[in-house]
Amino acid sequence: MSRFQILKELKAxxxxxxxxxxxxxxxxFFVALEEFIVKGNKIEVRSFGSFFIKQIKEKKGARNPKTGxxxxxxxxxxxxxxxxxxLKKFINEK
Length: 94
What we know:
By secondary structure, this protein is of the alpha+beta class.
């Protein structure tokens, strides 16, 4: 779903807000989520799921699949999402 589609859906359900107000609200929401996650915090949205940073260990013995050469892969952070039970149930019913 694109940003435009999300705004369109929000506007359909919230007639009292202008499209510009909803756009500012959505942008501020995503900026706040991003800033909070970058600080290493876990974000839990009730009835939806949790966003969190997962640290991936370094790999000293990884191989380049093209050449077969041994390469070093440094440790890195990965954004993960874990849906709540209700969301999992809803997705699997469809």
